[in-house]
Amino acid sequence: MSREPYKFTLHKEGIFYKCYNEDAMLFVKHIKPYKIRHNHVKALGEDVLSLGFPLSEIEKGNLSFNNISDLLGCEQYDEANGQVIFDLKNDIKQSFEVFRDSVIENNKVQAYDIPSHDRILPLRELISMIKNFDLANSTPMEGLNFIQQLKKELQRIESGNGDI
Predict the structure, then answer these.
(1) What CATH code is assigned to 7-108?
(2) How far apart are CA 20 and CA 45, in angstroms?
(3) Residues 53/63, Cβ–Cβ less than 8 Å
(4) What are the tens digits of pLDDT across the range 102-155?
(5) Which of 20, 42, 53, 128 has its CA 20 to 30 A from that of 14?
(6) For the range 150-156, what are the long-range contacts, defined as Cβ-Cβ under 8 Å and sequence gap of 24 or more?
(7) Over 90: is that where the pLDDT of 66 sits?
(8) How far apart are CA 19 and CA 43, in angstroms?
(9) Angle 109-119-156 (CA atoms, 0-180°, nearest 5)?
(10) Quick count: other Cβ atoms within 10 Å of Cβ 80?
């Protein structure tokens, strides 16, 4: 994906607007702190960061292109061919590599991982973990992995190795 230092682009994909790499970085730094996804794209031979939000955020007025333009310090924006392209006044996409590396590293450490202990977790700790799991910003696979980890811990409790 080519770097365009003076452009910020939202791509309309189905019922979402998505942005990638440097544009995703700008979005979370200047507009709204959404969760960024990391994928390795074999066809490109590189890691790609992406961020998406529903079209309804624009339609309901929670976000507006004018507001996005103001927050990014844009001169203007154009909507065409399923894209919204904002013209940036300055190259504000610096230090992307550092940002990308931190996102990749943070995605490796899952916030929902149940710590491995020699002891069985008390039920109140499991309940706390469930309450604190960020379902809105998790992928379906992250949710399934979390449930699987909870099931294993509950099986340990049921087998008599811990108190409820």
Answers:
(1) 3.40.1170
(2) 15
(3) yes
(4) 888 777 644 445 555 555 566 777 787 788 777 776 778 778 888 888 888 778
(5) 42
(6) 150/114, 150/126, 152/114, 153/114, 153/120, 153/121, 153/126, 154/126, 156/120
(7) yes
(8) 18
(9) 90
(10) 7
Residue 159 DSSP code? I
Residue type, 70: D
> What pTM did the predictor assign?
0.64
The SS3 assignment for 100 reads helix
Please state, in angstroms and as integers, the Cα–Cα distance from residue 30 to each residue in 33, 123, 145, following that order: 8, 40, 32
Closest CA to 73 of 34, 29, 13, 35: 29
pLDDT in tens, 67-92: 999 999 998 999 999 999 999 988 88
Distance CA 150, CA 113 (A): 10
Q: How many residues does the chain have?
A: 164
Q: What are phi and psi of 3, to 5 degrees?
A: -90, 125
